[in-house]
Model the fold of this input.
Amino acid sequence: MRVLDSQFGSLAYKSLGDGKEVFIIFHGFGQDQRDLLPFSKILKPEQRFLFIDIFFHGKSQWKSHENPLTKSVWAEILKSLFKREEISKFHLIGYSMGGKLSLLTYELFPENVQSMILLAPDGIKTGLFYSISSYPAYFHSLFKQIVFKPCRFFSVVNGLSQIGLMESSISKFVQTQMKHRSQRAQVYLTWKVFGGIQLRLGEIIRNSRKLKTPILLFTGKYDKMVTAKNLERFSSKIPHLKSHNLPVGHGGLIQATVEFLTKNKPTPN
Done:
C-alpha cells in the first residue's frame, strides 16, 4: 500500500503491475480499493493498475470535514500523484461514486485520459447521497439527525418499503450502508466533503466527442439506483460510447463487468 500525503489529507492506493500503460481505478461508496481488485484479472504485462482508496474509505484520510473537496484541490492531488508515479497518460475505471470521480478526473484532464470504463456512475443523474452539501446549511442539522439518531429514519424507510413506495433494493442499500454508527458517520462525512462537486457534463461530452475518447458504460438490468434509462440522456450524446446493460443489480456489477471484459476485449481502445 502506498500513501500520498498532502496538506488536504492522505490518499492511499495499491499498485499492481510494472507496465507503462496506467489505469487509475476508483471504488464506490462504502467500499475500498480491495473491492475493485477483481479487475486485476484483466491486467496485462505492459500495464499498471492503481487502485485508489477514496477519502473516508479504506486507509485514505481527509484532514477536515469542514473543508469540502473542490475541483482545484482534486486537480492538485492528482498532479502530485502523476508526478510521484511518473504518469502522463492514463485510463480510468470507476464504479458508482468512483464513476463520478472518474468523470471529474476526465473533466480536469481530458487530454491525458486514454479511455474510461464507467460502472453505474454517479454524478450524471445526481442522487441524494452526493448532493447534500450543496443544500442550504439548515438542512445539515436534519441530515446529522438522520445519521446519528436514525431510529425514526429507519422506521420511515421500512414503512415506505412495506407499502411499495420505495424499491426494496434501495431500502436494503440504506439498511446495510447505515446499520452501524461508524457507517452512518462515513455517510455524513462523505456527504459533507464530496457533495458540493457538480460535474460539467456538457464539457465532458464535448471533449469526449472532440478527442474521441473511448468509453465503455456498464449498467445493471436490475439496478434501481443507477439505471440505463437515467444515463441515456448522457450516453446518447456520445456516438462512440459503447453501453452494456448486464443482468445484475447494483452490487453485482463489478464482478459481472470483469467477467464481460475477460470474455470480450478487455479495454475500450
